[in-house]
Amino acid sequence: MSIDYSDPLKSVRLLTVEDLVDLKIGSRASVYRMLARGDIPCIRRGRSVRVRQVDLEAWLEAGGSSANVLPFRKRKAAKRSA
Q1: How many Cα atoms are found within 13 Å in the side-chain-facing hemisphere of 4?
Q2: Are the CB atoms for 52 and 34 separated by under 8 Å?
Q3: Helix (H) or strand (E) holding 44
Q4: Cα–chain center distance at 73
Q5: CA 15 – CA 34 distance, rounded (Å)
Q6: N or C: which end of the chain has fewer CB within 10 A?
Q7: In the structure, what pLDDT confidence band is assigned to residue 80 with cuts at 50, 70 and 90?
Q8: What value does the mean pLDDT of the chain take?
């Protein structure tokens, strides 16, 4: 994924979470988790989250990948006393 810098609008393309899922960055939940942790630089405007394409490419080139995603820990069931 490389940017054509001859077109200035392509350098400011904003990607949605669904775009990141389509690019195989991770599942929807893992993408939101990476965004919440600050792993992927993003822009928040109200309730919407966008990622600049140039930031995503820089993150990927720096070694960012979905392999760095840690799954949520499953909570242990509460012990019940009888």
Answers
A1: 4
A2: no
A3: strand 43-45
A4: 19
A5: 15
A6: C
A7: low
A8: 78
Half-sphere CA count of 14, side-chain side, radius 13 A: 8
**Cβ 64 vs Cβ 40: under 8 Å:** yes
Amino acid identity of residue 76, one-letter, is K
The CB density around residue 8, as the number of other CB atoms within 10 Å, is: 8
Burial of 25 (0-12, 13-18, 19+ CB in 10 A): buried
- Note whether 56 and 17 are within 8 A (CB): no
The answer to whether the CB of 46 falls within 8 A of the CB of 52 is no
d(CA 33, CA 36): 5
CB 34 within 8 A of CB 69: yes
> What is the spatial distance between Cα 43 and Cα 51, in angstroms, rounded to a whole number?
6
Q: What is the pLDDT of residues 43-57, one digit of tens each?
A: 998 989 999 998 898
